[in-house]
Amino acid sequence: MIWVIVAVIVGILIRLISLAAASEKPDRPVKRAEPKTDPTAETARAEAEKYDKELEEKYFQSPLTKRIIACISDGTGRLPEQIDVYEDRVTGRTEGAVRAFDFLTERVPKLEKKSFAYRDKDCCGDYDTFYKDSSPAKALAMAINRILGGEYDMKWEFGKDYWGAGGGIYRSWINHVVLTLKATIDF
């Protein structure tokens, strides 16, 4: 009998607490969640290009970029014929002599890519997540070219890899950016 009375009292207390908690909540209209759209390849590419432009401007304004140019130049005021921009170093070649600005030696962090994700259909028609990477090496190369008066042509050097026996899967990636002086004398 006592157990029945205790159970009834506990039930009444729980009901009172739940009613008190419900009365403390103000009546707010329910907001419906807007459907979230996944970014497309075009928006990811636009975000990566915007990020690259911001990096280029940052590198253009940085005194470190001017120090890199001084290290890879020969000190005579002559422009290097070729400048290679890697993620961990920048090299310059002037009259056959190669000079390098090594990020590890100079205690400068490596150039890190930033990835922008988007969803798209893969080869089987299923939706999958892909990534568009930014290119800090390209941004640094563009900033160096701007500082040196736009005298350089820019191109990518690609690394290549083969997997498996007999060729297998072929893969290539951007290895570094090459700036070469524009030709001024024609035949």
Our Rg estimate from Cα atoms comes to 30 Å
Unreliable sequence segments: none
Helix tally equals 4
DSSP strand tally: 7
What does this structure look like?
Strands 3-2-1-7-6 form a five-stranded antiparallel β-sheet. The protein has helices spanning 2-24, 41-61, 63-72, 136-147, and strands at residues 82-85, 89-94, 97-102, 115-121, 127-133, 152-163, 169-181. Helices cover 35% and strands 29% of the residues. Helix 2 (41-61) crosses helix 4. The N and C termini lie far apart (113 Å). With 187 residues, it is of the alpha+beta class.
SSE topology sketch:
Elements: H1 2-24, H2 41-61, H3 63-72, E1 82-85, E2 89-94, E3 97-102, E4 115-121, E5 127-133, H4 136-147, E6 152-163, E7 169-181
Antiparallel strand pairs: 1-2, 1-7, 2-3, 4-5, 6-7
Give a brief description:
With 187 residues, the chain is an alpha+beta fold.
Features:
187 residues, alpha+beta, two-stranded antiparallel sheet, 7 strands
